[in-house]
Write a structure and sequence with these properties.
- The chain is of the alpha/beta class.
- It has three helices and seven strands.
- Helix content is about 10%, strand content about 30%.
- The strands form two sheets. Strands 6-4-3-5-7 form a five-stranded mixed β-sheet.
- The longest helix has 6 residues.
- The termini are far apart.
């Protein structure tokens, strides 16, 4: 990795004296990122439930934004009621597309189904 990525790889001795070296790679900043969420409004505010809700930091680093696919397009009131799960804000997202499923992984929506008695 060090040889093939000279411009983005750095090695330094362990400052705590273990005798080993530490390797660092520059952060990835893709042009566009793709994300599948549970629901989004027409503006692109996207709801993502745990345990996947921590995976939004990579897409937010995309230089030109995030293309979002979701199981449901919902109204802005639904997004406001579940705002604690809004992980991709409209300002970062490109148009949202309704696409059922999150192949090749599943999509956990338990938090939305149980949130304040609503089903969306």
């Amino acid at each position: 990795m060090e040889t093939d990525n000279k411009d983005s790889f750095f090695r330094m001795p362990d400052p705590f004296g273990s005798g080993e070296s530490l390797n660092f790679v520059k952060a990835l900043h893709p042009d566009i990122s793709l994300v599948h969420g549970w629901a989004a409004d027409s503006e692109g505010n996207t709801l993502i439930a745990a345990p996947y809700s921590g995976n939004h930091y990579g897409p937010l680093a995309a230089r030109q934004g995030v293309i979002v696919t979701v199981d449901k397009i919902v109204d802005a009131d639904f997004i406001r009621r579940h705002s604690y799960m809004t992980r991709i804000p409209a300002m970062s997202s490109k148009p949202s597309v309704r696409a059922m499923g999150a192949h090749p992984t599943g999509l956990h929506a338990l938090g939305f189904r149980n949130a304040r008695g609503t089903r969306g």
